[in-house]
Amino acid sequence: MFTPDDKLTELVLDYCRQRLALDPVPLDFGGSEDGFEVFLHGLLGPTGNDPADVLRLFSEHLAAAVVSCDSPRFLSFIPAAPTKAALLFDMVVSCSSLQATSWLEAAGAVAAENQALRLLADLAGLPEGAGGCFVAGGTAGNLSALLVARDTARLRGHDVARPMLAVSEEAHSSVAQAAHVIGVDLLTVPAVDHRLTGPSLAAVLRERPDAARVVGVVATAGTTNAGIVDDLAGVGEVARAHRLWFHVDAAYGGAGLFSPLVRDSYTGIEGADSLVTDPHKWLFAPFDCAALLYREPRLAKSVHTQDAAYLDVIHDEKEQWNPSDYAIHLTRRARGLPLWFSLAVHGTEAYREAVEAAIVLARATARLVEAAAHLELVREPDLSVVLFRRTGWERADYDAWSGQLLADQTGFVLPTTWEGRPTARLVFLHPETTLEMVEEILESMR
Ligand SMILES: *Cc1c(COP(=O)(O)O)cnc(C)c1O
To answer: What is the pLDDT of residue 32?
Structure first.
């Protein structure tokens, strides 16, 4: 069967050692290489292959056809920059088959995850009783939280047959997806300079005929496209006045809570009923890791606890904390542990510095853009996303430029759309991205 093989262990650990030692991580190419069928043909069959051959095939033909999102030159979508401590501990989680589903089975792993969650709750200013669990991503977090918003609306006095959620037009696509899954309609609140504000939410609730159906509101702390933090204090106040569930999607931006440079813009986040932050984005954890927190976890537990005869034992002790009770999942990897280990090893001050490096770089980039005659800054960055345009360029120009940057391995930079126009977008979070790299990219737009 699965004959143990020391050689295999050595091979794979060596590969990991080499990957960890890459400095810097090369950008590589994404979907540019094809012909995978040639390499993969016949690989999976009744008999196995020499692990060295399989690993070589992987590293030469497959791994090289994945753009490295942990390269300091990866500046698209949302990059990644997991610490080595977190990556290595991810291997520990894997090699130990660590799951963290229930307290009964995995108290040690759950206790450590909860310590990391508590740290995030403290940063946000959530009360002592707050808690939750780690889920696979912001999408899963938003879905799980919004289901609780819907199912507990009655407790807040909303007795509506067809509930709605108020969202800004800038909310992440996963919010609409979640609403679709749970069968809730969306009431779109016009943003004010791309921000959801308390007054605009209040106006919509006052004026729209279907406003009585609204049971919750989603605010974003760091929009994905532009890094804009909504008026959390204002939105939270209106939410409380209308007894709405107040969900804050801080999947990308939650990391800013570490930095006094931007902490003020999060004022009001402490009033959230639920909050999502992705450590696999700007908190230097490996995929897949999102923190989901609730102000009153018992509400989430009443919605998410799965009921099955074989699970009764994990619910015998009412006070025990089962991460499975707080989101749409049951068996779950102890995915909070790499973050926990890295936080414990490096300390929060290192996290503050790393987060601020990106904010400072975004601000410095904005100054370079302003100073360049061929470029225009679209808006002052709130966090670590910089939007700007090259005078006179059309979409095709941005696309060609972007393709050339990747071909030259100068950067992975994809254009976006802002106010209906093609726009260059740089997202910083890798602590080793330098201003020189940015200069090189801006220079290439002449
Ligand atoms: C990235 C992001 C999400 C989705 O998170 P995943 O981890 O990709 O599922 C949701 N909301 C915001 C604001 C995001 O930036």
So the answer is: 56
